[in-house]
């Protein structure tokens, strides 16, 4: 690039983030904690009524549904799945391939399967209240009946980690001693006694439990980096294994031999790979040029199942856990994604998810003995011909500093030869990733005549360690311009005969924050925005997010005690006087991750400045929208808003 031009761009970028002219910094805002939303605000900002025709369109798309991959029984005769067909995620029992399911749980609060008892008689379930994410741990007979609490306390987050092979021992974590720490417990189902195993500072979790009682535990150092220890249950002594004095990703399980570990890490290169660790040495088992995204092992430690992520497309693989030779995995024609789910306790059956651009995920159960698979759950799409759905195209846009950013694009057929309005949807995380594939909600926007763009900006997962870490802390100042550059590139390259497309922006969580950034810091880049559960201030967000999350998130965004200047420069609330285009903000009142005050404070400030702004609060939701009626309202008002301002 020409040096004078480069200098101008650098000076321009620096001027964008200058805080010297700010009338009020985000640190001066009080912010709001979890319980700050008043009844008056809930009433004032409840979602207004929608046009009946628009409701009907959304309801039709939401009738397209799929189950979770589910948990398969040892005999391969029953599959237990989550399904949102009632409007909220509940648990269902499928008694055979393509058999009619039976609903096991109900009510308004979402319920999820955590695991299955070794003898197959009980399900272990997770349920919170109104989306507040303080989930309790329950059990229920696989034949149905009431939920029996195992551990449930107000404002305590409980997570089942492992079910032991003795059919009576559970291992779970909970932040019941101190809100900012997760302690580790052993629980006896017969005596209802819980035993504290680890009570130290940090976000602890169980990694694995061996057949002879060895316990592998870990502690998150950041949102992605972790360290692992061997735990002596009797003495409570922790012996360091991996990740100490490092800041690398590790996921670890016991190997097939004593003293052997299977390790997923990106320590030794750009991409996560699987390694065998034995006698102090690592051996690469995959040698792939893309990320190994996950791995699982059966209880007998005979087989390693893993998945690769190639530019957003998932593929399933398997190898022997003893000699590490490749094991056959069935292939599926035209599949965008194939991935493993749960494996039965005896190791014989595994669930497989298969997704194409034209159909929701179909669930299969694969028999490793016979090497045959059967289709268990079929996706529902009543009154909708999904063969007409738009397929994602992998494309790229170029930033001001010459970096190519991958993006998935869905286009209406009618936009092949004419200029159409564009909506750019940024993913959450920020260390997440946008994927191609089937999406009825995305199709809603396509059917309304919008081109939908899903970028994977710098800081996204799936493209190597350097890409993933390029936005950590103050470095975010250098790459946040990817949000602006997407719109700039679209306007320049998708115009026809002087007709420039209008461009909107939307997203949830960090995608909601990206939306607020695009509308404020880079005002003028987008013609309208809809931000869902996004942070308006990184300062008040870090101050008010749940205690157990703050340390993990500071490593990503910056630390309150030493990075305040950068946090201020990256807070949209400080740039409200730059906003030029209409903005809608959507939030759940019970959100523990990004408190609803983040939405209220930016709407209040915009209202004071007579800027076009709308705010919708859901009284019975948390970080995101789970309930069907609320989803209809969220998507309906988003479509209404963009139809009004982009067409």
Walk me through the structure:
This protein is of the alpha+beta class. The protein has a domain at 37-60 and 384-646: Rossmann fold. The chain contains 13 helices and 35 strands. The strands form eight sheets. An eight-stranded mixed β-sheet has the order 28-29-31-30-32-33-34-35, with helices on both faces. Strands 1-2-3-4 form a four-stranded antiparallel β-sheet, with no helix packed on it. It has a four-stranded antiparallel β-sheet with strand order 5-6-7-8, with no helix packed on it. The chain is globular, with a radius of gyration of 25 Å.
Given this structure, which CATH class of the domain at 37-60 and 384-646 is correct? Alpha Beta
Spatial order of the strands forming the largest sheet: 28-29-31-30-32-33-34-35
The assigned CATH architecture of the domain at 37-60 and 384-646 is 3-Layer(aba) Sandwich
Instruction: Indicate the mean pLDDT.
Output: 91
Q: What best-fitting shape do the alpha-carbon axes yield?
A: globular
How many beta strands in the DSSP annotation?
35
Task: Kindly summarize this structure in a few lines.
This protein is of the alpha+beta class. 19% of the residues lie in helices and 31% in strands.
Defining traits:
globular; 35 strands; Rossmann fold; disordered N terminus; 13 helices; alpha+beta
Layout of strands and helices, then pairs:
Layout: H1 3-16, H2 39-44, H3 52-62, E1 71-72, E2 79-83, E3 90-94, E4 102-103, E5 111-116, E6 122-127, E7 136-141, E8 148-151, E9 158-163, E10 169-174, E11 183-188, E12 193-198, E13 203-209, E14 215-220, E15 226-231, E16 238-242, E17 250-254, E18 261-265, E19 273-278, E20 281-284, E21 291-297, E22 303-310, E23 313-320, E24 337-343, E25 349-356, E26 359-367, E27 372-377, E28 393-398, E29 404-410, E30 422-426, H4 440-447, E31 451-455, H5 465-468, H6 476-479, H7 481-493, E32 503-508, H8 510-519, E33 528-532, H9 538-544, H10 547-557, H11 564-569, E34 583-588, H12 597-608, E35 613-618, H13 628-646
């Amino acid at each position: 690039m020409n040096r004078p031009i480069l200098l101008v761009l650098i000076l321009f970028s620096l001027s964008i983030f200058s805080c010297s002219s700010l009338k009020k910094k985000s640190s001066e805002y009080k912010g709001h904690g979890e319980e700050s939303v008043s009844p008056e605000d809930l009433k004032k900002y409840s979602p207004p009524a929608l046009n009946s025709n628009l409701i009907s369109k959304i309801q039709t798309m939401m009738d397209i549904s799929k189950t979770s991959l589910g948990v398969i029984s040892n005999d391969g005769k029953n599959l237990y799945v989550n399904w949102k067909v009632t409007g909220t995620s509940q648990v269902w029992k499928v008694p055979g391939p393509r058999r009619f399911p039976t609903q096991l749980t109900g009510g308004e609060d979402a319920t999820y399967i955590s695991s299955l008892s070794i003898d197959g008689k009980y399900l272990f379930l997770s349920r919170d209240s109104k989306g507040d994410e303080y989930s309790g741990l329950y059990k229920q007979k696989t034949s149905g009946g009431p939920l029996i609490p195992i551990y449930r306390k107000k404002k305590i987050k409980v997570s089942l980690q492992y079910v032991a092979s003795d059919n009576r021992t559970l291992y779970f974590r909970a932040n019941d001693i101190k809100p900012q720490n997760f302690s580790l417990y052993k629980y006896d189902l017969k005596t209802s006694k819980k035993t504290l195993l680890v009570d130290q500072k940090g976000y602890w979790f169980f990694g694995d439990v061996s057949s002879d009682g060895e316990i592998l535990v870990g502690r998150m150092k950041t949102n992605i980096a972790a360290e692992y220890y061997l735990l002596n249950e009797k003495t409570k002594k922790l012996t360091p294994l991996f990740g100490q004095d490092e800041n690398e990703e590790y996921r670890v399980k016991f190997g097939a031999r004593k003293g052997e570990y299977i390790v997923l890490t990106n320590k030794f290169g750009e991409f996560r790979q699987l390694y065998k660790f034995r006698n102090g040495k690592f051996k690469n088992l995959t040698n792939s040029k893309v990320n190994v995204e996950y791995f699982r092992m059966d209880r007998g430690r005979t087989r390693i199942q893993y998945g690769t992520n190639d530019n957003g497309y998932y593929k399933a693989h398997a190898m022997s856990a003893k000699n590490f030779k490749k094991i056959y995995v069935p292939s599926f024609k035209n599949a965008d994604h194939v991935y493993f789910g749960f494996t039965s306790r005896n190791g014989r059956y595994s669930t497989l998810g298969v997704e194409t651009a034209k159909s929701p995920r179909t669930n299969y159960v694969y028999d490793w003995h016979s090497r045959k698979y059967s289709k268990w759950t079929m996706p529902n799409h009543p009154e909708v011909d999904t063969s007409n759905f738009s397929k994602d195209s992998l494309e790229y846009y170029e930033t001001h500093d010459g970096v190519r950013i991958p993006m998935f694009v869905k286009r209406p057929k009618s936009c092949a030869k004419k200029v159409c309005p564009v909506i750019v949807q940024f993913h959450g995380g920020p260390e997440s990733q946008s994927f191609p594939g089937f999406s009825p909600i995305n199709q809603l926007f396509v059917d309304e005549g919008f081109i939908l763009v899903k970028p994977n900006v710098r800081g996204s997962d799936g493209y190597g360690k350097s890409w993933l870490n390029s936005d950590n802390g103050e470095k975010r100042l250098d790459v946040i311009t990817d949000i602006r550059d997407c719109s700039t590139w679209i306007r320049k390259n998708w115009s026809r005969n002087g007709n420039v497309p209008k461009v909107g922006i939307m997203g949830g969580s960090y995608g909601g924050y990206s939306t607020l950034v695009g509308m404020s810091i880079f005002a003028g880049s987008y013609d309208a925005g809809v931000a869902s559960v996004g942070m308006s201030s990184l300062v008040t967000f870090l101050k008010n997010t749940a205690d157990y999350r703050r340390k993990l998130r500071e490593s990503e965004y910056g630390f309150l005690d030493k990075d305040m200047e950068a946090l201020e420069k990256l807070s949209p609330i400080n740039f409200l006087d730059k906003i030029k285009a209409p903005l809608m903000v959507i939030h759940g009142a019970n959100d523990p991750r990004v408190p609803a005050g983040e939405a209220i404070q930016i709407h209040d400030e915009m209202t004071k400045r007579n800027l076009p702004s709308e705010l919708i609060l859901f009284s019975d939701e948390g970080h995101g929208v789970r309930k069907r009626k609320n989803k209809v309202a969220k998507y309906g008002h988003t479509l209404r808003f963009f139809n009004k301002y982009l067409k």
